[in-house]
Amino acid sequence: MPKQARINGIKSYRCYTSSEAAELVGVSKRTLHNWTRDGLQILDCERPALIRGDDLRDYILKQRQSAKVKTGLCEFYCLKCRDSRSAYGAMADCKISGNRAMLTALCDTCETVVCKPVSLARLPEIGRTLDLTIKGDGATL
Ligand SMILES: [Zn+2]
Known about the structure:
The protein has helices at residues 18-25, 29-37, 53-67, 123-127, and strands at residues 15-17, 50-52, 75-78, 83-86, 91-97, 100-106, 113-119, 131-136. The chain folds into two domains: 15-67; 75-136, no CATH class. It has a four-stranded mixed beta sheet with strand order 7-6-5-8. It has a two-stranded antiparallel sheet with strand order 1-2. A two-stranded antiparallel ribbon has the order 3-4. By secondary structure, it is of the alpha+beta class. Strand 3 and strand 4 (83-86) form a beta hairpin. Helix 1 (18-25) crosses helix 2 (29-37). Bound molecules: zinc ion. Zinc ion is lined by residues 78, 80-81, 85, 107, 109-110, 112.
């Protein structure tokens, strides 16, 4: 799994050279160079070229967003497949706590345990697709 770039130390009002920026977010200079080709704004009227802190942070956040996989209401994100998957046998365990429920199922492709939190309000809808086994503090649907 690739290391995630750090955004905590980025100061939005500061400008960084590409080596400073690479070190700050914990990526190689080559990765940073790829980012600038991929759309990260640089101020190249200056030498050396500078990167604004807020541009750098926005770029990394946008990149994280696009790496997210959309899962349907009755689908799960499988860490092993790294993709959205249906529940094996259309079955899921459902553990209720408060107004949240944790669904646990097996990936229909690799049978790895997958889980996701859902709101209690969605359970009746999910229950039409998945065979839910409720395990919890006695709450009923
Ligand atoms: Zn899987």
